[in-house]
Amino acid sequence: MRMTNIKKKNVLVCFIGMDGTGKTTLARKLVEIMNEQGIRTRYVWSQFQPGLLKPFIWIGRALFIPPGDPLAGTYIGYSTTIRKVTRNLIVRNMYEFVLLLDYTRQLLWTIRIPMMRGKSIVSDRYGYDILIDLCVNLHYSARKMSRMLKIFEYLLPKTSLVFLVDAPEEMALKRKDDTPSIIHLSERRQIYLDIAEQYGLIMLDGSAKLPELHAKIWSRVQEII
Hints:
Radius of gyration: 18 Å
Shape: globular
Strand order of the largest sheet: 2-3-1-4-5
Helix content: 55-70%
């Protein structure tokens, strides 16, 4: 499965990867280049923003992390809460369903409609990032991961190019001081690499020099516009 459907003129280019790898810098530069070339392009930050899911998150925190608990507000506390809440199969299925519905609604306004109006989109994060968070928090098996990828492919806007920006966890942590912990990064990095290899995503070395990366990205984008 590839979340890819190459189009002419207006395209959807996504940058995915761990926090701190440089996705935002690369995405914003590509938007600048494309607009300079006369391609109407919009930058979109596609991290999942809870809307419909908010009540579930509040209830979970209230039930499983009492006020004053030292885990409250920490990455470990958040992960522990999700895992406790979703041990029940019915709750897990409901959580996944509402999250997918929420994210699909979010991308309708930020990506799907602007593309229907002829704009190209450069997305900082995308469905892969959201799915990998789910994989870590809910302990997905490889089979479950594959099944969820197909669901994401069906529901989300089809991409033209997907770049995976990779970097060592230590480097990524230094670059982004609001990253929860190095555990947060290491839990996810190998999954990103496995998906990139399996589905042929374009790998970018986040530790390389920016001009080199910009040139490589623009070269690939030129092939599809």
